[in-house]
Amino acid sequence: MDQSPDTEPRGGPLVGLRVLDIATIIAGPTAASLLGDYGAEVVKVELPGQGDGLRTFTPFKDGKSLWWKVLNRDKRLVTLDLRKPQGKDLFLRLVAEADVLVENFRPDTLAGWGLDAQTLWAAQPRLVILRTTAFGQTGPYRNRPGFARIFEAMGGMTFITGEPDREPMHVGYPIGDSIGGLFGGLALMSALWKLARDPEARGEEIDLSMTEAVTKLIDFNTLKFELLGESHQRSGNVSQYAAPTGVYLTRDGHWVSLSGSTNSLYAANCHSIGRPNLIEEPRYRSNQDRCRHAHELNAIFQQWFAENSLAHILERFEACGGTVAPVYSAQQIVEDPHVQARGFLQTVRDEDFGEVRVPGVVPRFGNHTCTIRRTGSDIGADNEEVFRGRLGLTQEEFDRLREQKII
User: Fold this and answer.
1) pTM higher than 0.85 for the full model?
2) Distance (Å, rounded) from C-alpha 212 to C-alpha 229?
3) What is the average pLDDT across 72-96?
4) What is the DSSP letter of 351?
5) Could you tell me which residues come within 8 angstroms of residue 297 by beta carbon, excluding any fewer than 6 positions away?
6) DSSP code of 374?
7) CA distance 183 to 302
8) Cis link prior to 59 (omega < 30° from 0)?
9) For the residues 75-88, what does the mean pLDDT come to?
């Protein structure tokens, strides 16, 4: 008999690692999901009857959040009220078997429920705890709530995004959360590396400020102010550190994005539009020169793109080694032959919609095959497997706890 996707052996360098995810929405769960992609077993704990707030986020199909499904892929989903004594006791039994705990409550919330770091380490001395908050565990803003737009705004990203004569803009996705999730995953692996090298090492507590993560991503921003006395400004789609650059409309109504900061790439771009004379033009000889004359260079390229079709543009730039790319919608990503050839969109099981395609694991490992097996399920879908199968609760205990809304 074929094995179900949930019972097939996991692949990946983190097989054997156990993660408890009690975080909500995007950032903390993203860090846990990344470890899961690389083979870790992730148990996600939600509040009974309420669940993770991401379940209420659009887009929906038949009342199911698609965002929830893809972000909480392959996690074992259980419900448990950590605020109640019996819930706390069950949780500590899960902690005793875990390597990593991911949480995003406001500072000292877990401690108020009797689950401070020392209690967690008493249950599992080598536990790595990732705490994700808007502003960190210390400082005057420590108790402020936060969402991605807060991190992006106060981290400096929003100020530098948009047209110079218009309001600052957020991107069309809560990228601040994803940035924090990536830093969280990296921090967890760093702490686990120390534990792997030192059998006597104790657990680690990681203080991840989401706002600091966004600020860190734009490394030069504060240094520019420190040394030059200037705050980096908005420049729309025109780069401030390379020219020509921009997003241009083609003759047949498509958008393309142009880049290339080195002399060799600039030369290739000039050959692509049939203007080799621009290469030796004194005003454009270095990238610094080109940035000073970006407006006139961008106008030359803009006109050429407007006079040509997307197919011709891509053909010319490929032939000449230029650096232009079509601006893809989701449909174009799905239909792209390179995406298809790489098999990046993986077909996985979904309990509501049968088989669906979702983005695969990034990056790829030469010695490991990492795959996604299923999308996120309904609330409490794995309660019996985890509480009865793993922790050994009897049916009577399980039913009683469920009736009391502890699970």
Assistant:
1) yes
2) 21
3) 97
4) T
5) 243, 244, 278, 284, 290
6) B
7) 37
8) yes
9) 97
Share of the chain above pLDDT 90, in %: 97
Question: Which residue in 206, 203, 218, 150 sits closest to 23, CA to CA?
Answer: 206
pLDDT (0 to 100) of residue 10: 78
And the tokens for 232?
A: 């980096």
SS3 20: strand
Q: Which residues contact 202 (CB under 8 A, 6 or more apart)?
A: 121, 125, 126
Q: What is the DSSP string of 39-97?
A: T-EEEEEE-TTT--GGGGPSPEETTEEHHHHHHTTT-EEEE--TTSHHHHHHHHHHHHT
Known catalytic residues are: 177
What six digits make up the tokens of 388?
A: 């009865």
Q: Which of 218, 220, 205, 213 is nearest to 161 (CA)?
A: 218
Q: Name the residue among 117, 129, 102 with its Cα closest to residue 26.
A: 102
Q: CB–CB of 214/157 below 8 Å?
A: yes
- In angstroms, the CA 97 to CA 100 distance is 10
pLDDT in tens, 236-278: 999 999 999 999 999 999 999 999 989 999 999 999 999 999 9
Residue pLDDT, tens place only, 23-68? 999 999 999 999 999 999 999 999 999 999 999 999 999 999 999 9
For residue 258, list its beta bridge partners.
Answer: 246, 324
CATH numbers and ranges of domains, the chain: 18-218+340-403 (3.40.50.10540), 255-326 (no CATH)
- Look at residue 114 and tell me whether its pLDDT is greater than 70: yes
| pLDDT tens track for 205-237 | 999 999 999 999 999 999 999 999 999 999 999
SS3 per residue for 247-292: EEECCCCCEEEECCCCHHHHHHHHHHCCCHHHCCCHHHCCHHHHHH
